[in-house]
Write a structure and sequence with these properties.
This protein has about 325 residues and is α+β, with helices and mostly antiparallel strands. The chain has eleven helices and 14 strands. The termini are far apart. The relative contact order is 0.09.
């Protein structure tokens, strides 16, 4: 199914819709994105989506997808995704994402426009995953560098640096040019299974005692400290000492896990808490001091930059 050659739905706004396969969500995407997408429907168990091009506009879509197992490999570009009710997963060139759910799951997916974007999306039905020899990965929550899962909704979503072998498979899929449909289908089917094997080996081998898991546990501890004790004066030096990580590892690892720096995360936690306090009737000065701002002017400036209005105006708007 090539979205750029007519196997799609065009609406009055010049957008294209994906539908027709039980592994794909029904969603409308801008025409310049539709022209760069090619979907290989291998059988009822496996679908591969190839995205390659430089669309002029950005992409920001919401959709509900079916129960499935998905491997995404971002070869070029920047993207973000989130399950409804979950934290955002930020992806950059060279990262991979795994998502699996035993029931339909809704969320948002966005990519930057105006720059080259290359993405490979491999989807298995859960029955197809079992027949291929794979196993459900819901039990592996916590083994990803960036984990945005919703265990209460039986949905896993995690990101990690793609190993070179997985990047090679994604490139092979994206550049596949076999003219014969049967040969092309066999080749892509084999590549989908190869990608599955690499992911299971990469993620499944991260045992709780591995160095990767120990470092991740310390990064999660750092995040919990910021989330729960946000009113304290946290510096990178102090936080690194608290969790037993070097400053460089903390800085790089935290950004990879949370999608933002330690300072940016702490500021957002403080501002989100302050916004809730203001909405509940707390005074501006009291809210600022409660969340750890020593300067009222600094708090007001940061709040307006983040929320678009001054704290006092936020309070008034919440009372309307």
């Amino acid at each position: 199914m090539d979205l750029g050659s007519g196997a799609n739905e065009w609406d009055g706004d010049g957008e294209s819709g994906l539908n027709g396969h039980r592994l794909l969500p029904r969603v409308h995407i801008p025409a310049d994105w539709a022209r760069m997408v090619r979907v290989h429907d291998l059988d009822q168990d496996i679908t591969i989506g190839c995205w390659s091009g430089q669309p002029s506009s950005g992409l920001d879509i919401e959709a509900e997808g079916p129960a499935m197992f998905c491997i995404g490999i971002l070869l070029e570009g920047q993207a973000s995704m989130a399950l409804n009710g979950g934290p955002p997963l930020h992806l950059h060139t060279g990262m991979a994402v795994v998502q699996t759910a035993d029931r339909p799951a809704a969320g948002r997916f966005a990519m930057l426009g105006g720059r080259p974007s290359r993405l490979v999306d491999i989807r298995f039905t859960l029955d197809g995953l079992r027949r291929a020899g794979g196993r459900p990965l819901l039990a592996l929550q916590g083994r990803f560098l960036q984990d945005c899962s919703l265990p209460q909704a039986h949905t896993l979503m995690g990101g990690f640096p793609a190993p070179a072998s997985l990047l090679r498979v994604a490139t092979d899929i994206l550049t596949c040019d076999f003219a014969d449909e049967t040969v092309r289908s066999l080749y892509l089917h084999a590549k989908a299974l190869e990608a599955l094997a690499i992911v299971l080996q990469t993620v499944g081998s991260a045992s709780p005692r591995s160095a990767f898991s120990r470092e991740r546990a310390r990064l999660l501890q750092a995040r919990r400290l910021l989330d729960e004790r946000f009113e304290e004066d946290w510096t990178l030096v102090r936080l690194a000492r608290e969790v037993g990580l070097g400053e460089k590892k903390l800085r790089a690892g935290f950004r990879a896990m949370a999608g933002r720096s330690v300072h940016e995360h702490l500021r957002e936690v403080r501002l989100s808490t302050a916004a809730a306090m203001l909405a509940g009737g707390t005074g501006v000065t009291q809210a600022a001091l409660a969340v750890g701002f020593a300067s009222l002017s600094h708090f007001s400036k940061a709040f307006k930059l983040s929320r678009g209005v001054l704290p006092r105006d936020w309070s008034r708007s919440c009372k309307c």
